[in-house]
Here is the input.
Amino acid sequence: MKEQSLPTLGEFIIEKQMDFKYSSGEFSRLISCIQIASKMVNRFINKAGITNVLGEAGNRNVQGEEQQKLDVIANEIFINALSQREVVCGVASEENDDFIEIRSGANAELSKYVVLMDPLDGSSNIDVNVSVGTIFSIYRRITPAGTPVQLEDFLQKGTNQVAAGYIIYGSSTMLVYTTGNGVNGFTLDPSLGSYYLSNPNMRFPEDGKIYSINEGNYIKFPQGVKDYIKYCQREEENRPYTSRYIGSLVADFHRNMIKGGIYIYPSTSQSPRGKLRLLYECNPMAFLTEQAGGKASDGFRRILDIEPTELHQRTPFFCGSRKMVEKVEEFMRNAPE
Ligand code: P6P
Here is the structure.
């Protein structure tokens, strides 16, 4: 079988540990912890229809969004996995108002890493059996080891990330991540419970013909975005663009990285700072984008350069094939105020 010739995620981590400038068993254990949690979440998702985990949990998260039962389950699975293995000193999650200090054991407080995550992005799609994802971002803490983790450990620029990635629970389950040395994708063989290196060195095509945006919000978009959409649709120039929008960032991103494309969630008249969160959605996806040769901005500024001020702050998000992002940025610059 093909997978027998491919390295597992565990083998890859050990092999690449020397590439990672913070190479220490602790980081390897952190990535292994994320993969274990992802397998548990995967199991819930795959049988959601026959167990009572579909639908809403009956409460709202800090974003004011209806929490799905699986949002809560996935959040608990990742937080428990990270806490029990004493690999991080703190976790911030879309599902929790404030960051969580991990003090489960002496080692936890001495851990150098914090994790920010969206435990189940696009979860409203689960009830209709559409791909969803987990997004994670890893930083070294900046306050002294051995002291309680602080908000400033989480409010770091995206350029400080030591690793970032996502799990896409789709037609197959894949874990895709970077530690700053390119992007690698691993496919889960559920019969063996192992991730195998199926997509080494993933790269965004420099250009593409797929644009992903919720055109239902068209009248609320900035003029530059409207102009870009019309540019893609102009008949006379025979633009073979196609619009693909799954409503799940990880799924749209993953397809665009493989085929070439751009994902846009701009500011709207209703949400002037956009919908997506900077720290645990846009920064990790921007790190992956740049590591795969693409570009990620807020329409004007590099996402990774944005100085965060709040844990759940939002930002407009344009990311994907470099030439496509540059083209929409040109429209954003030239649009009338
Ligand atoms: P809308 C899911 O809630 C999410 O954060 C992304 O995964 C997705 O791309 C976007 O929001 C969908 O938002 O407003 O188009 O339904």
In short: The longest strand covers residues 113-121. Residues 121-122, 214, 247-249, 275-276 surround 6-O-phosphono-alpha-D-fructofuranose (CB under 6 Å). Helices lie at 9-16, 25-46, 69-84, 106-110, 223-233, 249-259, 278-291, 322-334.
